[in-house]
Design brief:
By secondary structure, the chain is of the alpha+beta class. Helix content is about 45%, strand content about 20%.
């Protein structure tokens, strides 16, 4: 399974497309609330869903394991899901963030 690249675009004043670094079309469990996740949260979600360990994620993101644990818990709370890999994967699949090869 590989993740889709999330690069929403918007038009600038000149009519050119530019990449929007924030993903803001997620809906929460509590009915239609729009959530915004930044690039680091998006990267963390991707790595969790790729079944990377906390240590592997920490190495990839150049942080320590404790920082990753805190960020993971914070992201789970923000998304309204449990802090488990299965919950993150389920959320990502419900939001069509993955294509299955």
């Amino acid at each position: 399974m590989t993740t889709n690249e999330l690069n929403p675009t918007k038009q600038n004043n000149e009519g050119n497309n530019e990449t929007n670094n924030r993903v803001n079309y997620f809906t929460g469990r509590d009915g239609g609330i729009t959530l915004t996740i930044n690039d680091k949260e998006k990267e963390l979600l991707q790595l969790i869903c790729e079944e990377k360990s906390i240590i592997q994620i920490a190495e990839t993101m150049f942080l320590n394991a404790e920082a990753i644990k805190k960020q993971k818990a914070k992201l789970a709370k923000k998304l309204g899901i449990q802090n488990t890999s299965v919950s993150f994967l389920k959320f990502a699949m419900q939001q069509n963030l993955f294509k299955i090869d």
